């Protein structure tokens, strides 16, 4: 792709064109497609555990093990959910070290990057 002087009449047009070229050559590590949001994680967890918690019970600061019956089966469900949804592997130790939904989110987000 070449940019001729006649096709670019303004500095802003040139900068926009240059940005598009750079974006094609050097993909950014985070795009809107792969940026994980905590609200997204909360919605997915609430959906997976709908038989145990009501929608809207989870929030970033909530201690998730206090919201519903926490056992080894639910831990495995959460591990599988994270692997399926985000292609990130977490383990029982990660869950044990996470007190809040925010803690768990930070572990997952760090492994996405």
3D structure, described in words:
With 113 residues, the protein is an all-alpha fold. It has two domains: 28 residues, no CATH class; 75 residues, ACP-like (Non-ribosomal Peptide Synthetase Peptidyl Carrier Protein, Chain A, Orthogonal Bundle). 56% of the residues lie in helices and 0% in strands. It has six helices and no strands. The two termini are 30 Å apart. About 7% of the residues have low confidence.
What is the CATH class name of the largest domain? Answer: Mainly Alpha
Order of secondary-structure elements? HHHHHH
Write down the domain tally.
2
Ends apart, CA distance between termini: 30 Å
Total count of strands: 0
Outline, from the CA principal axes? elongated
Question: Any guess at the CATH architecture of the largest domain?
Answer: Orthogonal Bundle
How much helical structure, as a percent, in the residues? 55-70%
Query: Biggest sheet, open or closed, and with what strands and sense?
Result: none
Name of the CATH homologous superfamily of the largest domain: ACP-like
If helices are DSSP runs of H or I spanning 4 or more residues, what is the number of helices? 6
Mean pLDDT: 80
User: Which residues sit in consecutive blocks of at least 5 with pLDDT less than 50?
Assistant: 27-34
Structural class: mainly alpha
């Amino acid at each position: 792709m070449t940019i001729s002087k006649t096709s670019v009449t303004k500095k802003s047009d040139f900068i926009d064109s240059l940005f598009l070229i750079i974006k094609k050559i050097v993909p950014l590590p985070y795009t809107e497609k792969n940026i994980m949001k905590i609200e997204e994680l909360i919605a997915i967890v609430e959906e997976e555990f709908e038989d145990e918690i009501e929608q809207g019970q989870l929030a970033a600061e909530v201690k998730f093990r206090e919201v519903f019956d926490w056992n080894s089966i639910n831990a495995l469900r959460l591990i599988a959910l994270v692997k399926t949804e985000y292609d990130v592997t977490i383990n029982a130790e990660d869950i044990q070290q996470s007190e809040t939904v925010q803690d768990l989110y930070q572990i997952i987000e760090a492994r996405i990057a």
